[in-house]
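Q&A log
Question type: sequence-to-structure
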Amino acid sequence: MGRTSSPLLTPRGLRLDRARAACLHMRMSGSTHLSVRFEYEAHGPSRRVAAWCMPLAFGALVGCGSSSSGRSTGVGPSDAGRDSEADGAAASAEDARGSNLVADAGDAALSVDGVDGGDDGDGACSWTLGSGTPQGTAPTEDNSADLSGATFGVDAFDATQQRRTVPIQVTTPLSDLTLGTAYVTGLAGDDTVAYLILPVTNSGADFPCFVQTTTYNWLSATNATLNQASTLYLDGSVGAVSSTVNTETCLAPGETGYLTDAQFVTSGSLYSAVASIQIQLESMGAGSAPPAKLLPTRYDVGTCGGVRTVQVEGTASGATVSIGNVENADLAPIVFLDADGLPARWSYLTQMTSANVAPGATAYFLDDLSEPAVSRARVFLPFEPQDPSIVSQKLAIRPSRVLGQIQAVRASRRERAQRWQRVQSMRSLSEHAP
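Response status: OK
Response body:
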């Protein structure tokens, strides 16, 4: 299932020369929200305007920017409504259980529909830049794969300048969960943003779930806290914590997951300033292997509307799974690895429509690739039991400890997605500043 989209034109006569519809696809209050990152150019007698947005972190515009006559401005959440050129870029979309999804991006319209097609420069997708398949051992057994083959992105990655290892200060070790090396990666020429990638391995015999940080601080050389206060939950395997509730925060024996984050500062340094990371882990419950699996089976690289994009296929087995029907359940973390198998960056894949996926059927996840030029990645696909509406009903009617943890996971995932979006927005401002 590919994606095609129509040309984007505003009533102001500003052509949206580039649309990235695969940035984020989220839900809030039962509705689907699509975060569209776009650029347009307005040619007038005296100026040329380019604008871009990474909007809608659950109703909050996280960052826009525009450049005009040689100046560049950044717009944060509190200023979002003042940018007339990018006003209303947050897109709302109808629930897309079928094959069609239509989103409004301010005054523009974006249509996502159909199957694979040639790239006509206006949004259609063409998967002609290579593919990849699972290689080696998957980090988890029911929802991940180690994929390699075609080069994912185009950003040059210099490990000597854009990756650091930092010491971990573990306040109280958690039995049987082993923390690996903490990698902090950055962007060339930008010291204000940083990504964390920290592997966690289950070396015991239990099946811990809701693995989370109870202490989590990025510290400077003087022990000043550099990061925004937050709780991270593990990106791991999917575990069943009741007959109707799954969580992707688990690790079966021998499996490896990741703690990932994106952080930023509005002034000063971040990437070069991190001297250590203080952390403590807790597991707030136990799980078991669910009857279903959703495993990445291949990826294809191509272009959608002229934008380099990757499409990852996930095949279900064992039982029908549901994807994209609960908050953040359609955001699939992808950890990019360099030629040495070490992290280069992490990002999100997004599944564009809600669906139940029967055994043997395939789900599709996409990412627009302003990502490192590496040819290996580890992908984790979240999934729910076939009828996740039961979870929502129970959350509303009869909260429990397990369902309370589900709410906490969703809140943490939402906050991380907001930080990641803000970092992406800051990247866009930096890349397009004159």
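Response note: Residues 1-122 have pLDDT under 50 and may be disordered.
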